Amino acid sequence: MSGIRLHLSVRDLTEVDLPSCGWAGSPKHVRELVHQIRRAEAGEVDYLAVCTRVGLPVGVGGIDYTVRPGAGTLWQLGVHPALQSCGIGTLLVRSAEQRIVTRGPTRAELAVEESNPRALAHYGRLGYRAFGRELESWDVEAEDGSLRRYEAACTLMGKDLA
Ligand SMILES: CC(C)(COP(=O)(O)OP(=O)(O)OC[C@H]1O[C@@H](n2cnc3c(N)ncnc32)[C@H](O)[C@@H]1OP(=O)(O)O)[C@@H](O)C(=O)NCCC(=O)NCCS
Prior knowledge:
By secondary structure, this protein is α+β, with helices and mostly antiparallel strands. It has a single domain (about 10-160), classed as Gcn5-related N-acetyltransferase (GNAT) (Aminopeptidase, 3-Layer(aba) Sandwich). It is about 25% helix and about 40% strand. It is globular. The termini are far apart. Bound molecules: coenzyme A. Coenzyme A (COA) binds next to strand 4, helix 2 and helix 3.
């Protein structure tokens, strides 16, 4: 196997990025990112984009400061399927942690589906420890545009940031 070096930078997601975010989820999910960008402008969340040298996002993820006081809650983390397992998710989490500390909170939290052992292991390696469980639910858009309610048991994980 041979490797190449990718030059990546992390910045705030903008509306201009959205046509290049089709890989991040359903059309509904991508449309709703506009709302998250508005929330970022209002200071409720940060929404980060890991970009290649030409400025295209290959990883995105949000930090919500309204879920738990004193903590930034990471959510909607995703890496382009073609570039998963290359370290981009790790860069995204580390950048989110830096952003949280810069904003003031000293703790990062996130919810991981219990049915996703690779993601659980990934956050464990990054220093996150389970502190509870929660049933989460959200709408998923089917191919025909219809919505289906999806429910999943999640492990709540947290990390105290230095
Ligand atoms: C989870 C995710 C954000 C990690 O980003 P990444 O760039 O692949 O992560 P890194 O390369 O830094 O670290 C690799 C580790 O992430 C986890 N991972 C990689 N691909 C994954 C996938 N498709 N699903 C879940 N976890 C994955 C694994 O633990 C992996 O380690 P491994 O390759 O030894 O199995 C990314 O894989 C992803 O978008 N997965 C699909 C969506 C998802 O499962 N999101 C869960 C968010 S809680």
